[in-house]
Write a structure and sequence with these properties.
The chain is built from 15 helices and two strands. The protein has helices spanning 15-42, 48-75, 105-124, 133-155, 160-164, 172-190, 206-225, 233-261, 266-280, 289-309, 321-339, 342-345, 356-387, 394-399, 401-406, and strands at residues 418-422, 428-432.
């Protein structure tokens, strides 16, 4: 259930609500290149362009697939599992207000499309530095329809979670848990980088990471604040909680870093901001500001623990999408079941305020969405891998994805810079300029 539940049937478009939603849509779209910057700083110096390009490609793939079929499958009809094709290629998506809102239907579609775009980009963080660019393109197009559109329908478009009364303000189900657990499946299928576990694979530019995180937090005010679908009380609550929850996560995370390593790391601080934004994404319009602070502080603990533990395993989930999005989204969805307050959201209380049924609904979503995302992503990548290679060769991985797939370097060195030319067999060959 989204904040659409808070709005009555609209008779006409409200210009104030429309103005805010235009701004919110632009803010959310900005988050994808911001994510590209965040991810690019976390990889090694030979891979930032390819890492950023996976995010850039997600804009093209996500926007086109959403407009053609994804939006219709998510928001047309009231089937339990999937929508219909009544809005295929934006049929009947007009400037008239969408039912239940005071904004144009076309704007509602565009806002929701930016969510699909960034969710695709998030998954790339699990497979950067070794997945073929062409394989990622194919995967992204199919995933946006088979996973994202389905889970968006379940949570927002009249599907079975929506009808049960599951609360998800801004995408804990189709964005956060879906990306996190799909990332785990992708990492398992694609496999680890050749140097994983044998040498330190360190971020090459912490400034990029911090700048990307800051821009993501800025964009998240549109992501969560816009999910009230107007300049209304729900948006104000979510907007404020998007300030408080990440701040509390950052405060706790810095303390954990200081205790564990006696240093407060920049990459850790940037990660904390993302985790805090994710924690409040499903809960933003349903919990009080006080509980948003508590969620940010307490929710930092399982996510921090996962990030510390995961490198000790054989799972090379490169940029910890599972911890920062999957576990944080899972935590946020469950938190609603405990601390939602009807006095703040106008819909439902959680367990602490006397409504145990809400926790049951939230727990069901927290189990079903990750299971579906993981299973379908795993099967989809296996199917793609049966017809085309998923990952670069060891030689290509050693050279770096930038020169192999884009013929460019993030940091060209002038005379003696690395260039790429095809050899007689069509493989990439490194040569020196000058």
């Amino acid at each position: 259930m989204s904040a659409v539940h808070l709005l009555a049937q609209a008779a006409e478009v409200d210009t104030g609500d429309t103005a805010w939603m235009l701004a919110a849509t632009a803010l959310v779209l900005m988050m994808t290149p911001a994510l590209g910057l965040f991810y690019a700083g976390l990889v090694r110096a030979k891979n930032p362009l390819n890492t950023f390009m996976m995010c850039a490609a997600s804009i093209a793939i996500g926007a086109v697939s959403w407009a053609l079929v994804g939006y219709s499958l998510a928001f047309d009809g009231t089937g339990d599992l999937i929508g219909g094709l009544g809005h295929f290629a934006l049929q009947d998506v007009t400037l008239a207000p969408r039912d239940g809102t005071t904004i144009p239907h076309l704007l509602f579609m565009a806002f929701q499309g930016t969510f699909c775009i960034i969710t695709i980009a998030l998954i790339s963080g699990a497979v950067v530095e070794r997945m073929r660019f062409s394989a990622f393109i194919v995967f992204a197009a199919l995933w946006s329809i088979l996973v994202y559109a389905v889970l968006a329908h379940w949570a927002f478009g009249g599907g079975w979670l929506f009808e049960r009364g599951t609360l998800d303000f801004a995408g804990g189900v189709p964005v956060e848990m879906a990306s996190g657990f799909s990332a785990l499946a992708a990492a398992l299928v694609v496999g680890a980088r050749k140097d994983y576990g044998r040498q330190a694979l360190l971020p090459h530019n912490a400034i990029y990471v911090l700048l990307g995180a800051g821009l993501l937090w800025f964009g998240w005010f549109g992501f969560n604040g816009g999910s009230g679908f107007g300049a209304n009380e729900a948006s104000v609550l979510a907007f404020t909680n998007t300030l408080l929850c990440p701040a509390a996560t950052l405060f706790v995370w810095m303390g954990l870093d200081a205790i564990r390593g006696r240093k407060v790391t920049a990459v850790g601080a940037a990660t904390a901001i993302i985790v805090g934004c994710v924690l409040i994404t499903p809960a933003g319009g349903f919990v009080s500001p006080g509980w948003a602070l508590a969620l940010g502080a307490l929710g930092a603990l399982p996510c921090y623990a996962m990030i510390v533990w995961r490198p000790r395993t054989r799972v090379d989930e490169t940029l910890d999408v599972l911890a920062a999005h999957g576990i944080a989204g899972f935590t946020g969805i469950l938190a609603i079941g405990f601390v939602a307050q009807a006095s703040w959201n106008g819909i439902s209380d959680g367990l602490i305020y006397g409504n145990a049924a809400q926790l049951t609904d939230q727990a069901l979503a927290a189990l079903a969405a990750p299971a579906y995302a993981f299973a379908v992503t795993f099967a989809l990548l296996k199917a793609i891998g049966a017809v085309m290679p998923l990952r670069a060769t060891e030689r290509e991985e050693a050279m770096g994805m930038d020169v192999i797939y884009h013929g460019e370097e993030a940091y060209p060195t002038g005379e003696g810079a690395i260039l790429v030319q095809p050899d007689v067999e069509g493989d990439a060959t490194l040569v020196k300029s000058g």
